[in-house]
Design goal:
With about 450 residues, the protein is mainly beta. It has three helices and 39 strands.
Length: about 450
């Protein structure tokens, strides 16, 4: 009976698929034997190296003298008659290969595992065209790494990913990046320029001890929050520039630091600033006219102080740079500004007989119900005797007015009053809506 069980086990083991096999990678133009781990037999995907502590390279030495120079990973490898797609660089796959000078990954590789290239002391460049995730310590302690190319698909940079990469000069986070981990760029002392985008979430001290930083480009958000994430010393010493990406023609924002009102620039697709844009304007709201239900505005010039609530007028879909304040520039007159800036989540719209809080939507300020407004925005506070539900805003000397389609009543502001073309008050809107003269008209 026992002999039959043993024989059965032997037969099953004989037909079990191999979890790892060897195939070639290219190192300085030569084929070098390398271990690949099967990640999915169904999808036929593999990773370079095995996740356990087995030897990566033939001969059992991860610092094999053959692994010197330029490493190129193939997009596919074969094990007998089966072809697999290479999708990952496994844990510690090339760790401490101290003679690698460059690495080029195929677009099929989406993950670079923990410590994959850590301690590669001669590595200078890495080309990562399809990588989505760089796990923790992926390029930790690569002191000669100066350039990371590709990265157009990158979303996640893990903890300590580029820690102590002292030669890394410039790393512009792609628009796809959403997460930067703890100490991800710690001690990158040659790093000079950092570009942060609105969608990115930073962990603690992402750029700790990056003493060479001279310019940080960041979106309008809480300055205090950035100081906590990047380190107050780094943020304070940088020549800062903020940018805005407009979804609508006019938006309210809070300026995180002193900026020049006449220094707006459009950002090209490749991240290079182009000629000065003529349509970007910084505007404050001043007096409210109860008779016409309109808000007067004034365009700013000179240096606008940090923390000012402003309207930013421009072309939707365009990204604008706001230039840092120049030494000796004339300070802009922001007296009588009715826009209140928010540097952290703030409760607005509380009931009051003396004033009302309004938020901007489609060129009209609507009375805000009680709720929370997020950091980086501004709202309008108007003191009045009566309390209208909405107020038009003048931008460039003209009141905003438009013909627009409202697909359902759910899209209308809850405090709006609607009239049909016969002048009768209605409770829901559909069809064409005309904004103007303090009333909204619609046709069913």
């Amino acid at each position: 009976m026992k002999r039959g069980i043993i024989a059965s086990i032997f037969i099953l083991a004989s037909f079990a698929p191999a979890m790892a096999f060897h195939a070639d990678i290219t190192v300085s133009g030569k084929a070098v034997d390398c271990s690949f781990e099967i990640l999915s037999s169904t999808e036929k995907t593999v990773g370079v190296g095995v996740s356990a502590e087995d030897a990566l390279f033939d001969g059992g030495n991860a610092t094999d003298t053959d692994i010197a120079g330029d490493v190129v990973i193939p997009s596919t490898v074969s094990d007998g008659s089966v072809t697999y797609t290479v999708t990952a660089i496994q844990y510690s796959a090339f760790s401490s290969c101290q003679k690698i000078t460059s690495v080029t990954l195929p677009s099929t590789v989406t993950t670079v595992g923990q410590y994959a290239f850590s301690g590669c002391s001669a590595l200078t460049t890495a080309d990562l065209p399809g990588v989505v995730t760089l796990e923790a310590n992926a390029f930790d302690s690569c002191p000669l790494l100066t350039m990371v190319k590709g990265c157009s698909a990158l979303t996640t940079i893990g903890n300590f990913c580029f820690n102590s990469d002292a030669a890394l000069v410039d790393f512009s986070l792609p628009a796809t990046v959403t997460t930067v981990g703890d100490y991800a760029f710690q001690l990158c002392k040659s790093l000079q320029t950092v570009v942060l985008r609105p969608s990115v979430t930073f962990a603690e001290h992402s750029f700790k001890d990056c003493t060479g930083i001279t310019a940080i480009t960041y979106p309008v958000r809480s300055h205090a929050s950035l100081a906590a994430q990047l380190g107050a010393d780094i943020l304070a010493k940088a020549t800062q520039t903020c940018y805005l990406s407009l979804a609508k023609s006019v938006e309210t924002v809070r300026l995180p630091y002193d900026v020049s009102a006449d220094g707006t620039y459009v950002l090209a697709a490749d991240g290079v600033t182009q000629e000065q844009a003529s349509d970007g304007k910084l505007i404050i709201c001043t007096t409210y006219d109860a008779a016409t239900k309109t808000i007067a505005t004034r365009e700013l010039s000179g240096t606008v102080p940090a923390g000012t609530g402003v309207l930013f007028s421009g072309t939707p879909g365009t990204v604008y740079y706001l230039a840092p304040a120049a030494d000796g520039a004339v300070t802009a007159d922001v007296s009588d500004n009715s826009l209140i800036a928010v540097d952290e989540a703030t409760e607005i719209g509380q009931s009051s007989t003396a004033y009302g809080d309004l938020i901007l939507s489609d060129g009209i300020f609507y009375r805000a119900s009680a709720g929370t407004l997020g950091a980086g925005k501004a709202y309008l506070r108007i003191y009045w005797g009566t309390q209208p539900a909405a107020a038009k805003v003048f931008v460039g000397g003209l009141p905003t007015t438009a013909v627009r389609t409202v697909p359902s009543s759910a899209t209308a502001h809850p405090r709006s009053t609607f009239y049909n073309l016969s002048g009768q008050r209605a409770t829901a809107a559909s069809g064409i809506v005309i904004d103007g003269r303090g009333q909204l008209f619609f046709r069913r």
